Prior knowledge:
- By secondary structure, the chain is an alpha+beta fold.
- The protein has helices spanning about 1-20, 35-45, 225-230, 325-330, 345-370, 370-385, 390-415, 420-430, 440-450, 450-465, 485-505, 510-525, 530-560, and strands at about 90-95, 100-105, 110-120, 125-130, 140-145, 145-150, 155-160, 165-175, 180-185, 190-200, 205-210, 230-235, 240-245, 255, 260-265, 270-275, 285-290, 300-310, 315-325.
Amino acid sequence: MTQRIIxxxxxxxxxxxxxxxxxxxxxxxxxxxxxxxxADSARRAPAAAPTPNAxxxxxxxxxxxxxxxxxxxxQAxxxxxxPVATAETLSVxxxxxxxxxxxxxxxxxxxATLHRYQTLAPGRSGxxxxxxxxxxxxxxxxxLGRDTVRLDRIPFAVARGGSTTRPELVFTGxxxxxxxxxxxxxxPDSYTVHVAGSVxxxxxxxxxxxxxxxxxxxxxxxxADDARHLAIAYKRRPDDARGVSFGxxxxxxxxxxxxxxxxxxTKSKYxxxxxxxxxxxxxxxxxxxxxxxxxxxxxxxxxxTLEVPLRNGEFAMDVYAGPQEFRRLRALGRDLxxxxxxxxxxxxxxxxxxxxxxHMLLWMHDTLRLGWGWVLMLVAILVRLVTWxxxxxxxxxxxxxxxxxxxxxxxxxxxxxxxxxxxxxxMKLYKAHGMSPFSSLAGCMPMLIPMPVLFALFFVFQNTxxxxxxxxxxxxxxxxxxxxxxxxVVMGISMFALSWIGLRNAPPNPQAKTMAYVMPVxxxxxxxxxxxxxxxxxxxxxxxxxxxxxxxxxERAKMASMTPTxxxxxxxxxxx
Length: 576
């Protein structure tokens, strides 16, 4: 049984590690040429006239995503638009949560500064700013038939309104379709702003194009790891959320996600900018995604354009620009708490466990007022205690199987030329011992119950901002790997101890002995750079399991002394 447990754990670990790579989530259907041209012309400024928010100096030209435009593709309404007047930037927000900055050039959302989170990037300090230097979080354009009108070329007048607690900005500007109005209503202490507007005289079928951020500024100690988490997520109704990582997109590769969409998100490891439909009665149109050109192995740019249909010339959306706090995103509704689609093709299994794990971790942290490191240790102990009876049952089933092995081998030898008679006698033997041919499989299943929790914890650690920068013992940040690699080594040693104890008083098995040495080394290598908190959880689980393994080994020794010796024929079956 020990060998089967080890093999099962190894297979699960390998499947967990390789499955997303061997069986990636199917990519959306490529965009049609005309859709690409429209989105691309709406997203890219002509070289002769950079936008006020273009990062021409800070971002090399090679970093700007490009896509081939067919000769027959429709062009923008104005090939060489006149430069806009000097843009004015206005700030709205509070000193406790966030401050959002808007520009009169196109009524764009320029940036959001988060006051409750501090940058961990080397050489920097202060509050976190989401936008990269020279880039905006949201820009707008109008799609009028086959023409695209970029609003960032149009100067808007602005008026302040609302109240002290719920400030508003109202932008008005003249477009080729008519007067455009964009209203921002900032919701205090929520990182959220309600956006509504209208375009007077907009023709039937007109669409507002919302340009999502091409990426978010890294404020993490490990900027490379942060870049690997850059992704675009979306939710089509009524499907589950899906994600497209920047790294999965080739330069210029185009993906198109069909309507109806509930929301779209650009996110880094811990922060995101989301554009969501205000209610279930409204939906967005197509989401076009274009991979950015790469100057390094890491993909740092991708273009996402969301189509917002105009209803009688009007539109509405909610924008969230802030941290990936589980409770806050869940309170917003619309399944925004699933903006991190966990598990790849196993999402249907992993995502519910991830949600359950987050609820449990947050409840324990708030109720017991323990640090996150202690919470993880307590969860590891509780999971092991809850599954203790199941593990006992599984291991005892293994012991019973070992006990009847001599009799099974004798039956095989005696009826090797009569398979049908062998099956009959084997079933009699199983019945005499209160077992069945599926006892070994049923005994293994309880051992696999903690695995979904382990998988969920692995994914939760990738984006759970509650763990960000949290120290524990010698570890400066449990969301990053152990800087001294103590925990993965201790985890490997504890795993070897479990295997070594499990082999005591067991029948000689060279394969099981080999696995007892190989498996801990393999798992240590896999976990070597995993988050320290995950290593802490798994190490504590192993240590808590040691007494149980030792007790069962003693039980095995007692049962071994009762096992009948078989000499060419099955001994008389006795009930265990």
